[in-house]
Specification:
The structure holds two protein chains of two kinds. Chain A is of the alpha+beta class. Chain A has four domains: 176 residues, PAS domain (Beta-Lactamase); 104 residues, PAS domain (Beta-Lactamase, 2-Layer Sandwich), CATH 3.30.450; 86 residues; 153 residues, Histidine kinase-like ATPase, C-terminal domain (Heat Shock Protein 90, 2-Layer Sandwich), CATH 3.30.565. In chain A, 50% of the residues lie in helices and 19% in strands. In chain A, the strands form five sheets. Chain A has a five-stranded antiparallel beta sheet with strand order 3-2-6-5-4, with helices on both faces. In chain A, strands 12-14-15-18-17 form a five-stranded mixed beta sheet, covered by helices on one side. The longest helix of chain A has 91 residues. Chain B is α/β, with parallel strands linked by helices. In chain B, helix 1 links the parallel strand 1 and strand 2. Chain B has one domain: Response regulator (Rossmann fold, 3-Layer(aba) Sandwich). Chain B is globular, with a radius of gyration of 14 Å. Chain B contains five helices and five strands. A five-stranded parallel beta sheet of chain B has the order 2-1-3-4-5, with helices on both faces. The chains are: A alpha+beta, B alpha/beta. The interface between A and B is medium-sized, with 26 and 20 residues.
């Protein structure tokens, strides 16, 4: 084995026909793939469904919430306007034209309104049907001012009441106007007009606790800001938003191209006014809870996949390894049985051959013996040394052939018996005898060193013979012609005997020496090695209660050490 | 004393040659080619030692040994075997055979065994006569 250069070493595969069945990597891959699919596909599917459902639920939730805020705020603003409009309606209906001509009366009313409504009312004026402001209470001198040609006057005449857009007016303060009309029986009318500051509006909108960095403001139908916007600036500015289409209900829509820019816009047209309540929110801020949920979902998915795959990989690896070991054991057993059967067959064949040869050999022996006897006893040819030496040569050859047949018979017999007392020296001599011819042919020196006092051991002679035949066979493969194989026997401790089989071959590399007893490991694949010889040897040594170790040095040789118990019991 | 030897072997060439060689060594030799023939011989003539091949057709070596020992227990039997099955030889030894030799055999070893057998036989006969 160790005569083969390491570059030529390779792991021998399982012999066919079982080879394709024992592709463990493939089995492992199949198991991992199948269990992985079965476990991960439902998990991924459920996670995707959950992802979509949760995303949809969260989106619906914030759209609904925005719509609700819009609706509630719109109601508050409508109430604010209706309240003030109703107050003015009550005042105009409760006070006759002449009564309202009194500045004092009008001042009292304004004061009462300011006290009752907590601010908002900035001034109050009464205008006659000609459009002339007859009485005015407020910070400016507006008495006598004619509004007949102004748009709002015409509208209030037509509709009976009017709410204006927010404007600066003379006072340069953003405000809007509410005007109500009272028709008189004579066909004339008069109008009560009040300017209302937008501070309360602003406060109302500012009080809305907007989530997601939201902004609530109002625009008019032309898109002009009617209140201050956190996003789009001061009153009367122009936000870069289109004026939404009219709708009686609260509406919510999304705008913006990228995820970063996307805005959720909710709006509601406020009844009987030029105002549109707008709520603008950044979608990414609204989606923050969803992003957190999504992160949890993805973390859960990745975590689960990692755990499942780790478990699958590890379990499959463990199981396939177990199968591989079991298969190896089975293969070794099969090969051992096959090997034993083969050796038994060889044994039977050897016995038959030996027996069949022995009988004619015995006749040749007796005939030649008789010839020699006749020469010697009759005396005629007793002194003919040539004839005597010829007969002796025949007898010597018969004796040699007899030794061979006896060895064959001994070899055959070894496969039939089990535990018996064994003289190890004799057994090793017999084993070396099998190799003597090859040793002579290759000029290999076979040496046996053993002290006289080696005790007999009780063991299975067949197994022992097989063990040493395998090891010496291996040594023969390792050495070059002219090499040396030495067997040393010595007692070890009280109940053990150690046999060392040393060759001076090429040695075994460090990487190979750990695998040398593994089944199917061979460096002789090119020369037909099965990789089973030493594996079987290892098992046989174990079976008879012994131990086998190996030491090797590259370029110097290898020593197998077999330690055997004196008795198997 | 000239020993009376019976050589029993189904191989006539072997048996007759061995008989001739033993005759040259001062033995009175009779040849039998099977077990039945051997039984007839031991019943008819006085035999000291039987050289008995174990592997024979018909009445084999062990059966012949049993039969001889049954009718003439004083006859010493040396077994010959062509194979190394020690079990058969051991069985023979248990049945009273004196020893066994492997074929091809060494004539001098055989002669030595025959002489030993003679000594054993005469010693046993002396013992038997002394006992009653």
């Amino acid at each position: 084995m160790n005569s083969v250069p390491p570059s030529q070493t390779e792991r021998i595969a399982f012999p066919s026909p079982g080879k394709h069945l024992m592709n463990y990597r493939r089995i492992w891959q199949t198991v991992v793939l199948l269990t992985g699919c079965v476990s991960l596909i439902p998990l991924i599917f459920i996670t995707i469904v959950d992802y979509q459902v949760t995303q949809h639920a969260i989106e619906s939730e914030f759209l609904l919430r925005t719509a609700r805020v819009i609706s509630n705020t719109q109601r508050a603003i409508s109430f604010f306007l209706a309240e003030r409009k109703s107050a003015l309606n009550f005042i105009i209906k409760d006070n006759e034209f002449n009564s309202l001509l009194s500045a004092k009366r009008l001042a009292d009313i304004l004061e009462n309104l300011q006290e009752s409504f907590g601010g908002g009312f900035m001034d109050l004026g009464m205008i006659d049907s000609d459009g002339v402001q007859r009485t005015y209470i407020g910070p400016y001198q507006l008495e006598g001012k004619n509004y007949k040609n102004q748009e709002w006057f015409k509208e209030v005449v037509d509709r009976g009441n009017y709410i204006s857009n927010v404007f600066m007016g003379y006072r340069k303060i953003p405000h809007f106007v509410i005007a109500v009309k009272r028709n008189l029986p004579d066909g004339s009318f008069y109008i009560l007009r009040a300017a209302i500051g937008i501070d309360l509006f602003q406060k109302l909108l500012a009080d809305l606790k907007m989530e997601g960095q939201g902004d609530a403001f109002m625009i008019d139908h032309a898109g002009t800001l009617q209140t201050t916007s956190w996003y789009y600036g001061e009153v009367l500015g122009k936000p870069p938003l289109p004026v939404p289409n009219f709708s009686e209900k609260s509406e919510v829509y999304e705008t913006g191209k990228t995820e970063e820019d996307r805005l959720v816009i909710g709006y509601k047209f406020i009844d009987d006014s030029p105002f549109i309540l707008m709520i603008v929110k950044e979608r990414k801020e609204l989606m923050e809870p969803w992003f957190r949920t999504r992160l949890k979902l993805i973390t859960f998915l990745i975590g689960s996949i990692t755990v499942i795959l780790t478990v699958i990989f590890w379990t499959s690896w463990f199981m396939v390894k177990k199968i591989k070991i079991a298969d190896h054991r089975r293969m070794i057993s099969l090969h051992q049985v096959e090997y034993a059967n083969k050796m038994a067959s060889i044994g039977r064949l050897a016995a038959n051959v030996a027996h069949e040869i022995n009988n004619p050999l015995a006749i040749v022996n007796e005939k030649a013996g008789l010839i020699k006897d006749l020469f010697l006893f009759k005396g005629d040819y007793a002194k003919d040394e040539r004839l005597i030496s010829l007969v002796d040569s025949i007898l010597a050859s018969v004796k040699r052939a007899g030794t061979i047949t006896k060895r064959l018979l001994t070899f055959a017999r070894k496969f039939e018996v089990s535990i018996q007392k064994i003289d190890l020296i004799k057994l090793i001599e017999e084993v070396l005898g099998f190799f003597q011819r090859e040793a002579n042919h290759r000029s290999v020196t076979l040496k046996l060193t053993a002290p006289e006092n080696i005790p007999e051991i009780e063991s299975d002679v067949g197994k022992l013979q097989q063990i040493f035949v395998n090891i010496i066979n291996n040594a023969f493969a390792a050495i070059h012609d002219g090499g040396c194989i030495e067997v040393t026997i010595k007692p070890k401790e009280e109940y053990w005997i150690e046999l060392m089989i040393t060759d001076n071959g090429g040695g075994i590399t460090k990487s190979d020496i750990h695998r040398i007893f593994e089944p199917f490991f061979s460096t002789k694949t090119k020369s037909g090695g099965t990789g089973l010889g030493l594996s079987i040897t290892y098992n046989l040594v174990q079976e008879i209660g012994g131990k086998i170790t190996v030491e090797s040095e590259l370029g110097k040789g290898t020593t197998f050490m077999v330690t055997l118990p004196l008795s198997t019991k | 004393m000239q020993p009376n030897v019976l050589v029993v072997d189904d191989e006539a060439a072997f048996a007759k040659t061995l008989a001739e060689r033993l005759a040259l060594r001062d033995c009175r030799v009779t040849v039998a080619l099977n077990g039945n023939e051997a039984m007839e011989v031991v019943q008819k003539i006085y035999i000291d030692v039987v050289i008995l091949d174990l592997a024979m057709p018909g009445l084999d070596g062990i059966a012949t040994l049993k039969a001889i020992k049954r009718i003439k227990p004083q006859i010493e039997v040396i077994m010959l075997t062509g194979n190394a099955t020690t079990e058969t030889a051991s069985e023979g030894l248990e049945m009273g055979a004196m020893d066994y030799l492997m074929k091809p055999l060494d004539i001098e070893s055989l002669v030595e065994l025959i002489n030993m057998a003679l000594k054993r036989k005469s010693w046993r006969e002396v013992k038997t006569q002394a006992e009653p």
